Structure formats: C-alpha cells, structure tokens
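Human: For the file, kindly provide a plain-text protein record giving the amino acid sequence and the backbone structure tokens, at your earliest convenience.
Assistant:
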Amino acid sequence: MSEIDKLEMLVTVSRLLSSKLDIADLLTTIMRLATRVVNSERASLYLLDEKTQELYFDVALELDEELKKMRFKLGEGLAGTVAKEGRSVISNNVDKDPSHTKKVDEKSGYITRSLLTCPMIIKGKVIGVVQAINKVEGDFTEEDKNNFEAFASQAAIAIENSRLFNKVKDEKNKLENIFKVIEEGVVVTDEEGNIKIINDSGVKYFDYNSNKHINITDILEGFLVDTEIEELLKEKKNYKFLAEKKDNKKLILECDFVADKFSFKEGKEFLWIFNDVTQKITESRVSREFLSLVSHKFKTPITSMVGYSQILEQMECDNEIIKKAIKSIISQGFKLSSLVDEMLEFSSIENKNACELKLTDIKSSDIIDSVISQKKEKYKEVEFEKAIIDNFELKIDSELFYKALSELIRNGIKHNKKDKKKIIITSKILNGFKTISVWDNGNGIPGRELDKIFDKFYQIESGFTGQTEGWGLGLSMVRKILELHGFSYKIKSQVDKDTIFTIIMNKI
C-alpha cells in the first residue's frame, strides 16, 4: 500500500469514526475498520473498567454471552500487557508467546495465529485495547503497527467523544424529564418573548397551542396581569408578578421572571416560572375581606358609643368617678375608632392591583412639600427639613405614595424617645436611580428586626421601645404600595441614633 493510499484510508477511517456518536454503532464500526487498516481476518476490542482496572468486552458488541462475561486484569494476556504498559505489541506466532492467553480461543472456538495489539490512549490515559487477529497474508509488520497505532488513536478520540455526547444526552434527558413533571409551569422565551420551550404544567395552565401561542403575551392574553410584559422584556431584570385568569375558571398564577442568569451561546433567553397560588391568594383575600367586614361592623357601634359619651360629658354631673369614667370611654373609643380606620385603610390597599393605580406625573419636590406641609401642622413638636438635591419627575399614584411617606414619618416619630425629634426627607439621584429617603433621629431598629418590621401585625417588642399602640400594619402597607408601583427599598439603622428609609424608583 502506497503512502497516498495509507493517508486516504486513514482520512476515510477518521471521517467514519467521527460521524458515529452512538456507542454501539461506533464500537462495531471500529471492529470492522480495524480489519481493513492492516488486512486481518478479525478484530477484537477491549475497554478498560476504571474502577476495577480490568479489560472487558463491551455489551454493545454482538458477542457470545460467555465472551461478554470475560475480564482480564492489567498484565494478563497480550491485551492486559499492552493496556498496562501503554505500548503496541506484534506477536506473529502466539503459540510461542508466553504473554498470550488462550481463554478467548477456548470460549470462541476460533484459532488465533498472530496478533497486533495497540492501546487506545486519550489524554495520556489508556481507555482500552484494539487487536487485529490473523494477518491475511504474511506477518504483521512495523508499518502495520504504525498504521494501527494511528487508527487506535482515532478510535480512542471517537470513543471519548461518544461517551461525552451520551453523558450530556443522559443529563439532558434527566433534566427534560424533571422539567416535564415538576408542578410549576416553566416557559423559556427569547428576548422578544417568543416561546422556545414550555413544560407539561405550562401547557395545562395556559391550554397551550403551538399554532396560536407564539409569544409569551399570547398565553397570557386570557389573564389579568399586574405588570407590562413588554416592559419586562425591555428592562431585562428579575421580577415577580401575578396573572389571574379572566374567565369563570379561578386560576391565579405567581410568575418569577428570571432574566439575568439564563443565557446560551446563541443569545439571551428568559425563564418564566409559574406557580399556582389560587388557594393562597383566595384565602388571603377572604381573610382581608373578613377583616374589612369586621372593621365596618365595629365602626357603627364605636361611633355611637363615642357620640353618646360626648353628650354625657356635656351634662351636669357632680360625681367625679362618673366624669372620669366618661372621659375614659371617650378616649378609648377614639383609640378603638383609630384602630378600625387603620384596619379599613390597610384592607383597601392590600386588595389593590397595579392596574388600579391612578398614575399621574408629579415632581419629587411637590410630593415632599405636600407631605411636610401637612405633617408640620399635625406634629408641631417635630422639626422637619427637606433636601431636594435632585428634583425629578415621578409617575405615581399620588394619594397612595403620600400615604407611604406619611406612614414612614409617623413610624419615625412614634418610635422616638428623644426630646428633640427630627425628620429629613431627601430627593436624590443615587447610582442612576431616582430615590426619596426619610431620615429620623429616633430609637433605631436592631439588626435582627430589620427583616421582620414589614411583616403584617409585627411590632418591635415592647421591651425595646416601650408599649407600642397600633396593629403593626403601617410598614406592611408601605411595602405593598411600593410593590404596586414596582419600586424597591432599603433601610439602614443604628440603635439609639437614627434610621433612614430609602425608596428606590425608576432608573433615569
């Protein structure tokens, strides 16, 4: 065989091997090509078990069952010797070669006369051995060995590629199976919102039809969504929102939109994870409606109680105990009425959706001036300041945002034991974001409490601040108002020094 013929044969062999990714098909192809490379009657292929350090016939090869069970330790027989030493061996007379074992011949009934054995090496590691059995004409030569080593090297690369491919394929299948059976609805879209993948739960939630549901907006068309989907796709930042089915079938889904950690080489992709929160939201609404109903029911008798008590207070009475009792009833009645008003206000805001906001454009300085002007009248003993470092336009529900700022001020004053109380409201561009912050020189908040103070009905323990009046709903209401606007917040506090609450709004 000329050098050109050898080169053409090796190129052909390389092309054939690289085209095989199925391991069974690949191993069979290696066995078939091995005979052609050095013109032998048969070929044999062993793989190395890394755990046991033994050579074995792969089950993919269609061999006799007895042969499939056979294993050779490193150093056993010619194949074991080649695998152990990592070098090729020619044996043209195996009967006189002490390294040769006749175990395979005895099982197969085939008579071996000569062997050319080469290790298959990848990245310096032996992964198996390939053998050419019985040269058709003459003996195996050094030229045969060189050609067979080149073939063995290509075979090793092909086997490793096949293993890697099948490993990735198995992992992909596992992920796909998990993806299919998980309870959450999962949708993968491109940057334009076009649906690339949707799992079984997603199909069920949205009655998905690939012919009509092309984009994420198509599957959400039958839902009331408390955000603008197009804006999410443009902003490309993580966000959580609710989608409620419009028709009579009650279905409320909470979606986690993941935009910042999910991308592939061919382009950025977005992950939409939908959870069925129908029962949770329904129970929450029933609870809020119950609170609202109870609050309304309380309002009438409380109003009557306070009203009639005030009439009694105007009447002539010489009994000091009765006078004191009437004053106490009036005082406690007003407190109870205030608590009921607070509960009604909270219930009203908790039931709102973002689509219900009455958005208007207003300057940050105008909303701050309005709040400070009103609060100065109510809290005459408190010093108020404003710091309009940047005066920017806001698109907000002015009434709700005013309530949020008012509650932050009220909270800062209520939790302040100092004789000279002070509030500073600042408007500023911070790291490219519009911010409004409320600073107070009050008691401060312990670090362990910072994550809890926005929970409903939570109040810092009386041992820290003294007995605190109210439901503990104010800051929870603030958080809800900010969430409705799509704003975030951060809070810094030093015990016995100060607290600063910063509302982080739109990017400029």
In short: Residues 142-181 form the longest helix (40 residues). Residues 461-467 have pLDDT under 50 and may be disordered.
